[in-house]
Structures
1.
Amino acid sequence: MSERVIPLVDQRLRALPALLPSHAIAANGLLSDGLGRPLHDLRISVTDKCNFRCNYCMPKEVFNKDYAYLPHSDLLSFEEITRLARVFVAHGVQKIRLTGGEPLLRKNLEILVAQLAELRTPEGLPLDLTLTTNGSLLARKAHILKDAGLNRVTVSLDGLDDAVFRQMNDVDFPVASVLEGIEAAKAAGLGLDAQGRWSGLKINMVVKRSTNVDQILPMARHFRGSGMTLRFIEYMDVGATNGWCMDEVLPSADVIRHIQQEFALVPLEPNSTGETAQRWGYANAHGEFDPNLGEVGVISSVTQAFCSDCNRARLSTEGKLYLCLFASQGWDLRELMRDKQGSDADLASAIGHIWQGRTDRYSELRALLPAEQQAAQGRRVEMSYIGG
Ligand code: SAM
Ligand code: SF4
Ligand code: SF4
């Protein structure tokens, strides 16, 4: 059995000051990092709390009643988030994803959504504004979020069998309530793409070899032809508390083989550069993609690194900027904004400087290591803190 590693140091404290470069960097929408990657996508964590305890993300043994979540005063306010988001958008960000923890636990989230929906890119276009949720509160919130300006949602769902699902969320939450939330989101119209066209909701399923492999086919059957896209995510070694080991990872290639036992699939072209999922379309009797049957996606973060196109920055709940999901430290933008009273131009300079210095490519480098060294490379922040 693999040993669980509990971090001895609170990773959230490990942040560098966001320094101003000697020459100001103005936001002109054309920022690129040390490996030539643009800044396109910003993920904003709005809370570090969650009502689930998925053991691959917030295991109960660690995130128990004694766990010290951030005090409310440490969280960025909606105004602070919107101010930072405006600077990121001026630098080239076109897509914002709200995440957490469970983002729908943040009170009055629709107010933030409405503020972000007002932002425009340097070309005058609205943002692709989306949110990832466990779906538990979606039935109640879907219409309010849509009215506030949210384009679409991604719902995480790790199985259809109630017993398996309750085991995965580890708080005995019934799958029927999440399915109700998904239907509510569909009815509210939360499935628009960046161009405002209907693209359907996305459903994310993390696959752990010991727990939910038998859910792959039932999930594929359920969502095939539903207008929703099911995506399978390889179980990743994010954070330091989930006791990750390679044996638990089911490679995406195996997921596709599994589905092909029952349904014919054909590979599809990516929709955009930096797209994390590889797309496969359900085929008709002639072996051609049938859009009515839809598609599935696989996110092969472990077996096929996609760092070379990674255009994502992550803003933690308390305003620290992370450049990689596997980073061990971030840059403190809140301090620059709140304590040092930095101007928007200062924020733009600091963010520009940080992004220009970015060379992260953790998954690519890990793939070069021998198998026995691929787990537990140093200390990392938790996914529930910087968001997925
Ligand atoms: N609570 C929300 C949810 O579950 O959708 C949003 C936050 S959650 C951290 C974002 C995504 O990260 C979810 O789709 C979740 O399944 C995924 N995730 C969390 N830990 C993971 C891990 N160890 N490997 C792969 N995906 C993970
Ligand atoms: Fe909560 Fe999402 Fe993490 Fe599950 S994956 S514990 S729902 S934050
Ligand atoms: Fe991006 Fe880091 Fe993931 Fe590579 S490992 S794709 S750089 S987040």
2.
Amino acid sequence: MSQAKYIFKIVVVGDGAVGKTSLIKKYTEEKFQSDYIMTIGANFAVKNVEVDGVIIKLQLWDLAGQPQFKEVRSSFYRGAAGAIYVYDVCRPESYLSLVNWKNELVKECGEVPGVLLANKIDLEEHRKVTHEMGEELAMRLGGLPYFETSAFTGAGVKEAFQKIAEIIYRTATQK
Ligand code: G3D
Ligand code: MG
């Protein structure tokens, strides 16, 4: 793809080990630039996507570990155009904590577009958070599009990232 006309920062949030880094890696296929910013304790990777015939560069950020320092977390969120909320369907506490993740993000960025990902659906026999509960949380977080994903099989991954790209682009260009 040729040069991107727009660049958007997207933060991927959720508890440790829900699969944030794995989802980003799966989506970017590790072919793209990936970097670790030590001062913030964050990783980011970039990927170009096409929305409405326009090339957009997505900058996908996630926290390595969950640093407690407020300054660090502020820098992580600053300038985000959108958010990907992730929980692990096998760990109900990771589902419950997304409300807190959203509150923290909103304090720094205000309301930004988002999508909700119920990850690790390949682990069917260990699943504790149902589809219905996922849809309910999506409503509670502001009517977010909801996706069931697996960073392991790749199910739903492309669709989820494409969706957030579309919403951000259309919001930014008021379409
Ligand atoms: P994080 O970035 O949110 O902290 P990671 O999470 O991407 O590091 O993933 C944490 C662990 O969950 C990793 O296992 C990873 O392979 C696994 N994982 C992530 N997504 C999925 C998924 O969709 N399905 C399954 N089965 N496993 C997944 P390890 O063993 O490396 O700690
Ligand atoms: Mg990680």
